[in-house]
Predict the structure.
Amino acid sequence: MIVWLASYPRSGNTLFRTVLFKTMGLMSFSDELGQKAGVVAVALQGTGVAEKIKIGEWDEFYRKALEADEVFLVKTHRPPCDDQPAIYIVRDGRKSCLSYSRYHQRFTRPPYPSLLDVVLGADYYGGWSDHYRTWMTRGNAMLVRYEELVNAPGELLASIAETVRHRGEILPWNNPFDELHRENPDFFREGVSAWQGDPAWTHLIDAAFFYLHGDLMIELGYANPETVMAARKDIPDEWFELVETSRRFLAGKKEYEAICAERQTVIDGLKQACDERLELIHRLTKSKA
């Protein structure tokens, strides 16, 4: 069984996995590490990866985890690929988008998406609101807020333990952020939960963000309706057209990507069938020779 640890990038997934390890001794895995490097085991102790376990290809690990009676905790930023339960970590969308944009600037090669690109959803993982909806409309996802994880009270830990089927001891949580920040200040940038603004978060970025994500911000309690309405009214006509055009373009792009993925699955299946038949032909030919 898999329990997905899902989140939009830079929303507190690493913190959550550290909580799981520090309070319950639970090791978690990453779908991205597995698919890129064939290494999927990630036990977070203190300031980083404590252990890497090479268990083969991602597909092999995924099948094993899916069919197992025990629970495998797997971090992901990707959309759902099955009906397994999930814990979704959410954070104020402004904090997530700003932090994710800065992550690109520090850790990815140019050209990387700008802050506006991230707000618009012109990124590999899409937009903040769509990402949330994709996971939380499934009906078997537990919502955990980043703001709750900072101190992780006992009631929250008990609920998480129930979801991941942990029956052992639950230790109190002591946030090691100061230690993490000292060891890796580029990755662990700040431990502040509340939105405090930022020079990069301009007036127009704010307007575009609330135009696209204001409804979810209200739903999650990160903004009130008055704030959202005021921000949306500040969008100049030309920016409104730009945001709308971008939104339609990105929606179409996602649709085409889904179609391409479906066709690639068919192609892969046909290739496997052809390879199997060719192998059979070679065996038969060799046996007759």
Remarks:
- The two ends are 48 Å apart (CA to CA).
